[in-house]
């Protein structure tokens, strides 16, 4: 699988990371390469099966993003924990609000 | 053999070849102080080695390359000052650049020795010393120090180091003229490069290292690069702030940014 970072404005591929082994919200790690600290206001991240090259203009809507397939079980678990912690915080806030109202 | 355990002398080598005169004519010769003397291969008015500190001044507005290059009578071009630097530098060589626009770059190539070549612009206001050309150091094995200037070059990297076997220190350098194809700093085959307090913006890479280079980057700024720091088979050691980019860091083929 190939990880690509593309410019949102032009859809131009800025960076390619081959043999992706891990992907996060703002980073890609491959077997021999990595890219970190992607500015998501300017660029998007996709993991695709196609052989995309740096400088190409892509159509993100026509490519199938396979990010989920390269996430390790640990990474998926950590992301699930993050979601659950967020939901728990929300519940705590709601309970606190109800207690105050009562 | 006669010269085992010690340097071969001219006479030793002359015994080993069919044309002894060719050896005599082509071996570098040294005077009693160990300084090289003209071998007769090339005649040049510039000495081969420094014998004392050298200081030159350059002013693109008021200078002339016919001047002696003093503060009162500066050269017009940086190239003229550089042309007077011997290739063996065992002292401090300083070229002071006055504020102004220079329609040239800086090329330092092929030096060796224990000295330093300093090219000093305006440390307080580097944007006042503007070069249209690139800063290029190559095949050189001394300490190079470039301070306080801006390059607007977009035909390649703004600052380019290749095979700098000594050390290169860049401080308060500005490279922010837009180039989607080229880096601000491009460092190749160079083991000791220091980049500090500089600003790199609007380039393909802020700092790019390849081919076993080791780069220390500290307190640098800038934004809107495609990649802030990028390395292939090289190391960028970072401290404090770094030039920003759409992607902050990219490393490949054993490259490390830490």
Descriptive overview:
The complex is a heterodimer of chains A (102) and B (258). By secondary structure, chain A is of the alpha+beta class. Chain A is 32% helix and 30% strand. Chain A has helices at residues 67-70, 73-101; strands spanning 2-7, 13-17, 20-23, 27-30, 33-38, 43-48. The termini of chain A are far apart. Chain B is mostly beta strands and 258 residues long. Chain B contains three helices and 20 strands. Chain B has an 18-stranded parallel sheet that branches. Chain B has a two-stranded antiparallel sheet with strand order 1-2. In chain B, strand 1 and strand 2 form a beta hairpin. In chain B, helix 1 (10-16) runs antiparallel to helix 2 (20-26). The longest helix of chain B has 7 residues, at 10-16. Chain B is globular and about 50 Å long. In chain B, 40% of the residues are buried. Classes of the chains: A alpha+beta (102), B mainly beta (258). Chains A and B meet through strand 2 and strand 5 of A and strand 17 and strand 19 of B. Strand 5 (33-38) of chain A pairs antiparallel with strand 19 (245-252) of chain B.
Percent of residues in helices of chain A comes to: 25-40%
The biggest beta sheet of chain A reads: 3 strands, antiparallel
Please bin the fraction of helical residues of chain B: under 10%
- Give the mean pLDDT of chain B: 89
Please, how many helices of chain A? 2
List keywords for this structure.
heterodimer, A: 102 residues, alpha+beta, three-stranded antiparallel sheet, elongated, B: 258 residues, mainly beta, 18-stranded parallel sheet, two-stranded antiparallel ribbon, 20 strands, 8% helix, 43% strand, disordered N terminus
């Amino acid at each position: 699988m190939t990880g690509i970072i593309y410019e949102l404005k032009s859809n131009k591929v800025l960076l390619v990371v081959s043999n992706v082994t891990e992907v996060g919200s703002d980073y890609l790690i491959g077997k021999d390469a990595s890219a970190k600290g992607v500015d998501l206001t300017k660029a998007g991240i996709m993991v695709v099966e196609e052989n995309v090259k740096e400088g190409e203009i892509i159509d993100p809507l026509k490519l199938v993003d396979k990010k989920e397939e390269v996430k390790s079980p640990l990474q998926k678990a950590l992301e699930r924990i993050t979601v659950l912690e967020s939901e728990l915080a929300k519940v705590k806030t709601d309970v606190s609000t109800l207690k105050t109202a009562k | 053999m006669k010269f085992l355990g010690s340097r071969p002398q001219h006479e030793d080598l002359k015994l080993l070849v069919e044309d002894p005169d060719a050896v005599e004519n082509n071996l570098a010769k040294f005077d009693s102080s160990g300084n090289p003397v003209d071998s007769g291969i090339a005649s040049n008015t510039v000495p081969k080695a420094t014998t004392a500190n050298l200081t030159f001044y350059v002013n693109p507005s008021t200078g002339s390359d016919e001047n002696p290059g003093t503060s009162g009578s500066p050269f017009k071009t940086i190239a003229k000052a550089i042309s007077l630097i011997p290739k063996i530098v065992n002292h401090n060589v300083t070229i002071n650049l006055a504020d102004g626009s220079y329609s040239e770059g800086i090329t330092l190539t092929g030096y060796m020795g224990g000295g330093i070549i300093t090219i000093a612009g305006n440390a307080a206001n580097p944007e006042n010393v503007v070069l249209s050309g690139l800063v290029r150091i190559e095949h050189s094995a001394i300490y190079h120090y470039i301070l306080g200037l801006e390059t607007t070059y977009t035909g390649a990297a703004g600052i380019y180091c290749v095979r700098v076997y000594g050390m290169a220190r860049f401080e308060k350098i500005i490279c922010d003229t837009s180039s989607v194809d080229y880096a601000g700093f491009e460092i190749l085959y160079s083991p000791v490069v220091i980049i500090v307090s500089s600003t790199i913006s609007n380039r393909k890479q802020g700092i790019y290292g390849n081919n076993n280079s080791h780069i220390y980057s500290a307190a640098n700024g800038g934004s809107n690069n495609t990649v802030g720091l990028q390395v292939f088979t090289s190391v960028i050691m970072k401290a404090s702030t770094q030039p920003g980019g759409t992607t902050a860091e990219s490393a490949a083929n054993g490259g490390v940014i830490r």
